[in-house]
From TrEMBL:
Subcellular location: Cell inner membrane
Species this chain originates from: Zobellella taiwanensis
GO process terms (BP): C4-dicarboxylate transport
Functional description taken from the UniProt entry: Part of the tripartite ATP-independent periplasmic (TRAP) transport system.
Primary localization: membrane
GO molecular function per UniProt: transmembrane transporter activity
Family designation: Belongs to the TRAP transporter small permease family.
Keyword entries, A-Z: Cell inner membrane, Cell membrane, Membrane, Transmembrane, Transmembrane helix, Transport
Transmembrane regions: 21-42, 54-74, 95-113, 133-160
Tagged with keyword NAD: no
CC per GO annotation: plasma membrane
Entry protein name: TRAP transporter small permease protein
Keyword Cell inner membrane carried by entry: yes
Domain called Tripartite ATP-independent periplasmic transporters DctQ component: residue spans: 29-158
Length: 183
């Protein structure tokens, strides 16, 4: 298997997992909130834990979704300088952005993992559910780990890509939105 083949397979596996996980998280959140509203107004029996669970599910969905945002190049970026330079230089600037973004995400993964370790040692529990709070906070290092892998994949794809024109492909929202419509 070639390097690009490996990363394409990894990309496909990650995409499948992330999309299914987001569907599951959002459907669970919707169901819990819907049932909480019904219980509160029809049965007059509030589900005190529902708000906390919905919050934690939303946090997890946001961090997993951020990884898909990296894959689809929909994160906000300032690219006026990149579009003002020749295509070969655009490619180098994009790769520099991939490397810096990877380093940023890897650093926050490391910081998040250390924080989770401290939370595990402290034994702190969530207010309503009384579950270990690190389950909720683990979304941060998991999300940044996924984003790190996505930036690495983006770097490899662009490194092995034959075309030198990267405009409207991975640099702006319009290109990403167009690619999303084609799927």
């Amino acid at each position: 298997m070639t390097i690009i083949g490996f990363f394409k397979k990894l990309d496909g596996i990650l995409t499948g997992i992330e999309e299914r996980l987001i569907y599951l998280l959002m459907a669970s959140m919707l169901t819990i909130v819907f049932l909480a509203v019904l219980n509160r107004f029809l049965i007059q029996l509030p589900m005190s834990w529902s708000e906390e669970v919905a919050r934690y599910l939303m946090i997890w969905a946001a961090f997993v979704g951020a990884s898909l945002g990296v894959k689809n190049s929909v994160h906000i970026s300032v690219d006026a300088l990149v579009h003002a330079i020749p295509p070969a230089a655009q490619r180098m600037m994009t790769q520099l952005g991939n490397v810096l973004s990877f380093a940023f995400c890897a650093w926050f993964f490391y910081i998040g993992a250390e924080f989770i370790g401290r939370l595990m040692d402290a034994g702190q529990l969530s207010p309503a559910l009384r579950m270990p709070i690190y389950y909720a906070y683990a979304a941060v290092p998991c999300g940044f780990a996924l984003m790190s892998v996505r930036y690495l994949i983006s770097f490899v794809y662009l490194f092995y890509e034959k075309s030198s024109d990267v405009r409207n492909e991975s640099l702006n929202i319009e290109g990403a939105m167009e690619r999303g419509k084609k799927k």
